[in-house]
Each structure stands twice: as C-alpha cells, then as structure tokens.
Amino acid sequence: MRSEQSKRRADAGRRPIGFVLAAVFLSIVALAGLVLTVLRFAESDDTPAAGVGESGSAAKLDGSANCPTLDLQSTVVLTELASAQWSMVGAVAAPQIQGVGPMEVSANGVPRCFVETPAGAVLAAANFIAFGTGRPDLGAELAASAIVPGLGQNAAIEAAGAASVSSPGAVQIVGYRVDRYDPQSTDIALAVRADDGSLASGDLVLKWSQGDWKLIVDPGTGRLPELRTLASLGGFTPWGIG
Fold it and tell me: What angle do CA 203, 31, 165 make, to 5 degrees?
C-alpha cells in the first residue's frame, strides 16, 4: 500500500496547472499568480490565502503590449538561453535576457514584450509561470496582459477576481522543450521541480497577439492543461537557477 506521502504526491500531479494559466499558470495561472491555477503540484497544504484582484480594476487593462521594434538579427537562439539572468518573484525564479525579454514591465512588475523568436517564446512562458505562482496578487492583471483576448481571457480574469488561492511551495523551473514553433504560434513545455524534489511538466500554447507572446487557455474555464508527473528531465533542456 502506498504511503500517505506518495498518495499526496500522485494526487498533486493530477491537479490542474492553472486558470490563467487562468486564475491564479497554475490554482486558480496562466498563466493565482498568473491567473494560472497555482501549481497545486507544489502546495504543502490547502490553507486558503487572501482573495486575488478583489477590486477587479486590473481586468480593465489594455492587453496590447506596444513593444519596441526589435532587430531580430540581434536576438539569441535557443542554445543561448543558458545566458538568462534569474531573479526571484516571490519564491519562484524568473528569467530575463536583455533584448529578448521581458523588455518592459507594468507599474506592478508584470512582464511583457518578448521577441518573436523561439527564445522569446520560451522566456515568455517561463515568466508567465513564475509570476503565476510567485505573485498570486497579480492574477487579474496577468490574465489581462498575458492571455490572448477572448472567452478564455474573460474566464481567467473573472476567476482571478473571485478566487481565493493556496500558498504554493517553492516550485522552480528546471527545463524547457520547444515542441512546435512558427512566428505566429508555438508549443512550449516547461519542467518544474517542487520543494520535495518531485518533477512535473506543463504544456503551454502561445500565440503572437497584439505585438507580444500570449497564452491560449481553455475558452470555458480560462485554465491551462493539467500537469504531468515526470520521472526525469529526459527530453528537456536543463534550465534554471540550479
């Protein structure tokens, strides 16, 4: 018979990755830290935290990025993502590469403006996950900024405004994989490690929209796909703060 700890870990691996990634990338993303249903995979308990975005003012934000024109010849390729500089967003590390992204942040620190390349898409996905799990208080603003406009974004913003979220554990990004890429859309998989050492991966679909990379979420719920447990980082490029 499995131990209680093993059972909890298995249950966590089946929980949804997020509401933006949709209501706070992964308990309710985004993609609350994002509007991602906060990575329940990393939670150590189910104690409710403060509600996210109660005023709803972030939902009125204009999601257009108005990003600077970029010289694509000056941007890094995937093999140079190892040069990323990492900084803490709550308990989660987020990457940045000068000239690739994020090149702008909102007044509250929400990242935006990633170059239209595979490296830019990976950086966008990683930042959305980091903010979705590390800053649940920015759930509605992140949903307005980081999700493709439409029914999914509306659902994510609504969920972020109404939800209470649990405090996530110290989940860290430890790998990436680009499953498909074209200049208008891309499929990115990110591997994460929980503070107990267990691994999981989440699949993110990003679209080039309003001059920036944005997440596509379920139109009915605003959620991202569920996490999958991993036995190892096989198939992923190792990446992160170590």
Answer: 120
